[in-house]
């Protein structure tokens, strides 16, 4: 569920709470060659709805990357956890995240959190020695 219905939360008097869902992020988010998402992104957050119908969310995005090590090309994987913090105001022209008609679309905030947490390389481990080249020369 990538939306929050402010009207519904107000009607149910749920001014604070928690939500979680999975999101299939596009592979184009990954700029590391030969790497992909191993599973959907898990999104977990707490929310607080304020009297002016603004909403704050705080939580995490977590996902697993798998593919080839950026240094030695061996199989590698990495668990990534990023922060998800966003503040939504009830207007469309808001600088960060806005909404109209009582519906908040979380997609942009979630995608921003994924992109901010994305590593630049994938490593098979701290002891990776990189590619080994032959020192032999033909004379």
Structural account:
The chain is built from two helices and eight strands, in the order βαβββββββα. With 139 residues, it is mainly beta. The chain has one domain. The mean pLDDT is 90.
In short:
The protein is mainly beta and 139 residues long.
Uncertain regions spanning at least 5 consecutive residues: none
Distance between the ends: 66 Å
SSE run: EHEEEEEEEH
Mean pLDDT: 90
For the report, how would you describe the main beta sheet? 6 strands, mixed
Would you report the number of β strands?
8
The secondary structure category is: mainly beta
Shape: elongated
- Indicate the proportion of strand residues: 35-45%
The rounded Rg comes to 20 Å
Question: For this entry, what is the oligomeric state of its chains?
Answer: single chain
